[in-house]
Amino acid sequence: MFDKLTSKFSSAFSSLRSKGRLKSGDIEAIGAEIRAALIESDVALDVVDKFIARIIDRSLEKLEEVNKGINPSQAIFTIVNEELTAILGGNSRRITLAKKPPTVIMLTGLQGAGKTSLAGKLALHLKSAGNTPLLVASDLQRPNAVTQLQVVGASIKVPVFAPEPGNGVGDPVSVAKAGLVFAQEKLYNIVIVDTAGRLGVDQELMNEAIRIRDAVSPDEILFVVDAMVGQDAVRAAEAFQAGVGFDGVVLTKLDGDARGGAALSILEKTGKPILFASTGEKVEDFDLFYPDRMASRILGLGDIQTLAEQAKRSMDSATTSRLEEKFIKGEDFTLTDFLAQLEAMKNMGSMSKMLAMLPGAGAIKKQIENFDDNELVRTQAIVQSMTPIERNDPKVLNGSRRARIAKGSGRQVSEVNNLVDRFSAAQKMMKQMRSGKGMPAGMGLPAGMARMGMPAGMGMPAGMGLPAPSPGRTAPKKKSKSGNPAKRAAEES
Ligand code: GDP
């Protein structure tokens, strides 16, 4: 997500960091560098200029004070972070439910923006929060839009109101109206109306959207927009705002090659906040949009909070509490715990997406992209081939035990060794984290996440097929041949 922008920001700040005391010329220079990066990322020019002016003004104003501190570049970084958060929306806004149900949410946007997919994602999200949504199929234009909504509705067990077949047949306004009446009768508390888009903005499209709007008086009109189209997204947003109007924005396809132009320009250009983000084709690939987290990702600090939330969602509460308790009591993180976490990680979806949320992920981008999700399955097989005693105390893993595990899991002894080595390193890191020594300064790993055993569970060090991020995290290799059960096992095999 916004990889190029992130790497430009990090190179701008690394040159600033090397400066020590800062002069006004340094501020102008980083301003120019960030400006070029934003323009290259397709952010609207007037938005860029205002943004850069604010950063430069604030930085120059504070320059004297900043230079008195021990880390002047960090102070500038903080200003940029604050301004980036502000431009992305400041405090995140959420959907407000109507006092008198049902709450009507109407989705608008161009064809292919991801409205129908989003309807399913939003319905699932609202259902998980205890609501009873109804999907209404008012996109009667796009081929198969009605069927697509029915399929997604069935997959998440949310009813779909679809009295017309679509594909050009039926009146979308009557369907929307009848859908609302149906929801009132059946006591659904939220109605999500999917509407038709066109390949470009045209008056016919706008008139249809306006008629649907006037028929159902939505509490929220959400403009769904493909983040990959950059400034075109902003132009479409402006047209929709002038036409049907909207209350909030949903950015889709953030998993793709989006450069950041849409995300960074839309609020300034339309005055409407981004509420949700769609990050993939699956119905679970959906997040609330948090400006501060997005700013953090753009600046290369990762998005640990979202990661922790996703982990928490995927792990059953009994496992989470057990791990929390262990962490608090200072007990060792064992391979049994690791196995529970592997299960949870499989539920969390694509590892590459999760790893990309780690601070500094940009530096291991290639490895992240190449991560093979089957590695989870292979690692799980190795741990499952261990006895409970071995899982709880990997020190008992002598050569013959390792050879047996390798055979049982259909893997090489070297893979078993690798897993055990990395697991020990992870265990050590957990201990350091518990004593507060483990995290690099300023990373601010939330305590909740540490308690969940995330760092080890994330598998970065624990034999998940990724290279150990730093040499310090890999267990040192012993030179002595005879004293090393791992090597002995490898030889024996
Ligand atoms: P609509 O015409 O606005 O209803 O668009 P659709 O919901 O049919 O989406 C158009 C295409 O984009 C479909 O192939 C979706 O699977 C895909 N899509 C939607 N959202 C995302 C997303 O966040 N990421 C990716 N990669 N694809 C998406």
Q: Total number of helical segments?
A: 24
Tally of discrete structural domains: 3
User: What's the rounded overall pLDDT mean?
Assistant: 81
- Fraction of residues in H or I helices: 55-70%
Form type: flat
Secondary structure: number of strands: 8
In short:
The protein has 493 residues and is of the alpha/beta class.
Your description of this structure?
Helix 5 (72-88) crosses helix 12 (291-298), helix 6 (115-128) packs parallel to helix 7 (145-156) and helix 10 (231-243) packs parallel to helix 11 (261-270). By secondary structure, the chain is α/β, with parallel strands linked by helices. It has three domains: 3-88, Up-down Bundle (Four Helix Bundle (Hemerythrin (Met), subunit A)), CATH 1.20.120.140; 103-301, Rossmann fold; 305-492, Orthogonal Bundle (434 Repressor (Amino-terminal Domain)), CATH 1.10.260. Residues 438-482 have low confidence and may be disordered. The relative contact order is 0.09. The protein is flat and about 75 Å long. The chain is built from 24 helices and eight strands. The site of guanosine-5'-diphosphate has 20 residues, from helix 6.
